[in-house]
Specification:
Structural class of chain A: mainly alpha
Number of helices of chain B: 13
Number of helices of chain A: 13
Largest sheet of chain A: none
Largest sheet of chain B: none
Strand content of chain A: under 5%
Oligomer: heterodimer
Shape of chain A: globular
Helix content of chain A: over 70%
Distance between the termini of chain A: 9 Å
Number of strands of chain B: 0
Number of strands of chain A: 0
Largest interface: A-B, 55 and 48 residues
Chain lengths: 314, 298
């Protein structure tokens, strides 16, 4: 196990190296002078010269990269040139907001997927199973942004049950936070619920066909106990993996949902930064999300190996 | 050259009956019909659209759907039906162009890595790992951050995001095929590496790639629509499904149909492609790596 962890950590090095180079290059790939891009068009040549020296742009490229990487590893991601705030502070404000949405959407996904997946595996030829596979196909094809619009239309504008935009921290007013979370969480969770339901069904079908399930039935256990405590436990392992992968993807990938519901998370910050050409913020956000994504994927893989004693990578 | 004979025991055994098996998949048949209809509508957009998609009629803003305006009108009095069928051109073009670009780059990468092995394979794989290490929509957004917003840039960004799936799938098939007798035979007769990769191995890896192309097209259409929705792809006044949904959501109360029809078309296109991919997969007995079904899921 220790060796496996070590190998996996080692594999991260080239990925993170390439990601850091790509993110660093971002600012050089933009047509024109990065100093000019940062300061805007209304600068004097002296200011520009000064900025270039301060940014280290007069150094050779590898030196510039090393300097940048040194700052980043110390947690200095630079300053937004739109509002002058350190990118690190901006990230610290947005991460809990996105975490709240991500957690809520995964809970919604589980609540939908568990009954769909389990029942359609236990009764594979029933009408219920057909409903489930219809739901899966639809939930995977409906674009997130359209689903969000439909939900706003129905629950926000016609029925007026729920607010359609905004954010309340869950630790300040849980009840109100929940009302604000319902629609975005369903929007974001619908797609994951379809994936989860598929995986749960496939995994459960497989474990129901195993010998130990036949043994459990043969010794007279009720079907409920056979499914619930024997088959399901083993079927849960791939489900955990899917959850982990989605969690990583949502850290920065909830851009669309956040845009629809005016939800002030990481994705929205990134979109705004791209549209306003606030490149230090673009750099910092992408770097953070890539690192979070990679680390969460690693933890998921490790959890997988930990949960299933048969898996020992060599 | 007589190397020709060494090719394709696989493709020959799988080709007869594929069409018949495909016809037995109701999902894929419906998908194919929907897809052909959408393509026909997009191609004939100037005729079936009846109105100029950019024509503004101030006096007929926010008209509900009627015989005059099938899908109603928008905030400038433009005909939404016309804009939807014209917008279909953007989506279907994106789907096709992305598959083409990602395939042309990804398939040789996979062939090369799988065939050559060693450091070349390792560096290609690490590069793909890196592309996969970034959530797809984020990578596309980062590329657009560099190139600037626009439809062509969006297609490029989506194509880059789609490369790894093609490359990995091709590599896996290549690894499995390169030790097979017919490949060894072709090499023994004197086939060079390029000949072996492109003429001997590739034709036998075609089935899973065909499924992958269908899935990738659906994924590309969704991702491009998402980017237009965020204002990073087609810019107004050019019609596209994503950008229409984005504007439409500001007028949901006055004109619910505005946010409805582009979404219906988009969902129909993706459902159709996914259904087709499903049917192809069953008919060909091939399974694509990567995303089994397309969705942006953000």
């Amino acid at each position: 196990m220790a060796q496996y962890v070590f190998v996996r950590l080692l594999q991260l090095v080239p990925v993170l190296f390439m990601a850091s180079v790509a993110v660093w290059l971002l600012i050089y790939l933009i047509p024109g002078d990065p100093a000019l891009a940062l300061l805007g068009p209304d600068v004097t040549p002296e200011q520009l010269q000064l900025a270039r020296a301060r940014m280290g742009l007069d150094q050779p490229l590898p030196v510039q990269y090393a300097l940048w990487l040194g700052r980043v590893t110390r947690g200095d991601l630079g300053v937004s040139y739109l509002n002058g705030l350190p990118v690190r502070t901006m990230l610290a404000q947005r991460v809990p907001v996105t975490l709240q949405l991500t957690a809520a959407s995964l809970i919604v996904a589980l609540l939908i997927a568990a009954p769909l997946g389990i029942l359609s595996a236990v009764r594979p030829r029933s009408w219920w199973s057909r409903v489930a596979s219809g739901y899966n196909a639809l939930a995977m094809a409906v674009p997130t942004f359209w689903l969000g619009i439909l939900l706003v239309l129905l629950f926000g504008l016609y029925l007026r049950w729920l607010p359609t935009s905004g954010y309340v921290p869950v630790w300040e007013d849980p009840a109100r936070a929940l009302r604000f979370l319902v629609l975005p969480a369903i929007t974001l969770g619908a797609y994951v619920s379809a994936i989860l339901a598929r995986f749960t069904r496939a995994a459960l079908l497989e474990s129901l066909a195993q010998d130990y399930v036949r043994t459990a039935r043969a010794k007279g256990l009720r079907e409920r106990a056979v499914v619930g405590s024997h088959a399901l436990q083993n079927a849960l392992i791939p489900v955990v993996t899917v959850l982990g992968l989605q969690f990583g993807a949502f850290m920065g990938g909830a851009v669309i949902t956040e845009a629809i519901f005016d939800y002030p998370g990481l994705g929205r910050m990134l979109l705004q930064a791209i549209l306003t050409r606030d490149y230090t913020v673009v750099q910092g956000t992408i770097l953070f999300v890539v690192c979070a994504f990679v680390v969460i994927n690693l933890l998921t893989d490790l959890a997988y190996a930990f949960l299933d004693p048969r898996i020992r990578y060599s | 050259m007589t190397v020709e004979r060494a090719r394709a025991p696989l493709s020959r055994s799988s080709s007869p009956g594929t069409g018949a098996r495909l016809r037995r998949q109701p999902g894929s048949l419906v998908g194919l019909i929907v897809l052909i209809t959408l393509t026909a509508l997009a191609l004939a957009a100037p005729i079936v659209g009846r109105y100029d998609p950019l024509l503004q009629e101030r006096q007929s803003r926010f008209q509900p759907p009627s015989l005059r305006h099938f899908f109603g009108t928008d905030e400038f009095g433009r005909d939404i039906w016309s804009r939807v069928v014209h917008g279909g051109r953007v989506s279907l073009f994106t789907g096709g162009a992305v598959v083409l670009v990602a395939g042309v780059v990804g398939i040789p990468l996979g062939l090369l890595g799988g065939y050559a092995g060693g450091w070349l394979d390792a560096s290609i794989m690490r590069f793909l790992d890196f592309l996969l290490a970034v959530p797809a929509i984020l990578l596309a957004m980062a590329i657009i951050a560099v190139l600037g917003p626009g439809a062509v840039h969006a297609v490029l960004a989506v194509a880059v995001v789609s490369i790894p799936a093609f490359a990995r799938l091709t590599r896996a098939s290549t690894l499995a095929l390169k030790e097979r007798e017919f490949v060894l035979a072709a090499r023994a007769i004197g086939g060079g590496p390029a000949y072996l990769m492109f003429r001997t191995i590739l034709p036998n890896a075609a089935s899973p790639l065909l499924v992958q192309a269908t899935v990738a097209a659906a994924y590309a259409i969704l991702l491009e629509a998402a980017l237009s929705f965020l204002g990073l792809s087609t810019r107004p006044p050019e019609p596209s499904w994503g950008s229409m949904l984005n504007t439409g959501r500001s007028f949901l109360y006055q004109a619910p149909w505005y946010g409805l029809f582009p979404g219906v078309m988009l969902t129909a296109a993706v459902l159709a492609l996914n259904g087709l991919a499903d049917g192809l997969q069953r008919a060909l007995g091939a399974s694509p790596l990567g995303r089994a079904t397309a969705s942006t899921g953000t």
